[in-house]
């Protein structure tokens, strides 16, 4: 007779928990609204992520579900070489679509973009030498 209420009470704390760990490489991945993307952002594709939206019969808090979905999307983006994710649609029963972008140029990408900028805009690119800025 008292088992069901006890079971429900024991599940309540779990409904407020985040369960997804952020991978170390994903720590620098941003979740941005689409309007914050710049023309330099390159789409790397889409990813659909999902988490449990219920613990037994108890609904998890919407904020916790969204937080877990963001963490999963950031983890996927880091694995794909992305640095930014944008939501593409609402959360439906713990499932959401994201688009992965690479917005920050790195390594050879930086050199290629700098060379292209020099050719197109006659911009001189001077590398920082770590010297005294008070000259």
Structure in words:
The protein has 135 residues and is an alpha+beta fold. It has a single domain (27-121), classed as Translation Initiation Factor IF3. It has helices at 3-15, 62-80, 108-121, and strands spanning 30-31, 42-50, 54-55, 58-59, 84-87, 95-102. The chain has a four-stranded mixed β-sheet with strand order 1-5-6-2, covered by helices on one side. A two-stranded antiparallel sheet has the order 3-4.
Task: Give descriptors for this structure.
135 residues; alpha+beta; Translation Initiation Factor IF3; four-stranded mixed sheet; two-stranded antiparallel sheet; 6 strands
Compact overview of the structure:
With 135 residues, the chain is α+β, with helices and mostly antiparallel strands. The chain has one domain: Translation Initiation Factor IF3.
Q: Which percent range fits the helix content? A: 25-40%
Report Rg. Answer: 22 Å
Strand content: 15-25%
Globally, the shape reads elongated
Q: State the total count of DSSP E strands.
A: 6
Q: Segments where pLDDT lies below 50 for 5+ residues?
A: 6-16, 110-122
* Tally of helical runs: 3
Average pLDDT score: 78
CATH superfamily: Hypothetical protein apc22750. Chain B
Structural class: alpha+beta
The succession of helices and strands, N to C, reads HEEEEHEEH
**Tally of distinct domains:** 1
| Gap between N and C termini | 82 Å
Query: In this structure, how is the largest beta sheet organized?
Result: 4 strands, mixed
Question: Which topology does CATH recognise?
Answer: Translation Initiation Factor IF3
> From the 3D coordinates, which CATH architecture would you assign?
2-Layer Sandwich
Read across the widest sheet, the strand sequence of neighbours is 1-5-6-2
CATH class: Alpha Beta
């Amino acid at each position: 007779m008292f088992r069901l209420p006890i079971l429900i009470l024991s599940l309540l704390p779990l409904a407020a928990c985040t369960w997804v760990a952020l991978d170390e490489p994903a720590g620098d991945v941003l979740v941005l609204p689409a309007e914050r993307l710049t023309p330099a952002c390159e789409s790397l594709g889409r990813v659909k992520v999902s988490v449990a939206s219920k613990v037994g019969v108890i609904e998890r808090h919407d904020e916790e579900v969204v937080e877990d979905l963001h963490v999963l999307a950031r983890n996927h983006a880091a694995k794909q070489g992305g640095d930014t994710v944008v939501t593409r649609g609402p959360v439906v029963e713990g499932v959401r679509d994201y688009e992965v972008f690479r917005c920050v140029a790195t390594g050879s990408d930086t050199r290629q973009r700098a060379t292209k900028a020099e050719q197109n805009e006659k911009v001189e690119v001077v590398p920082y030498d770590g010297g005294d800025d008070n000259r």
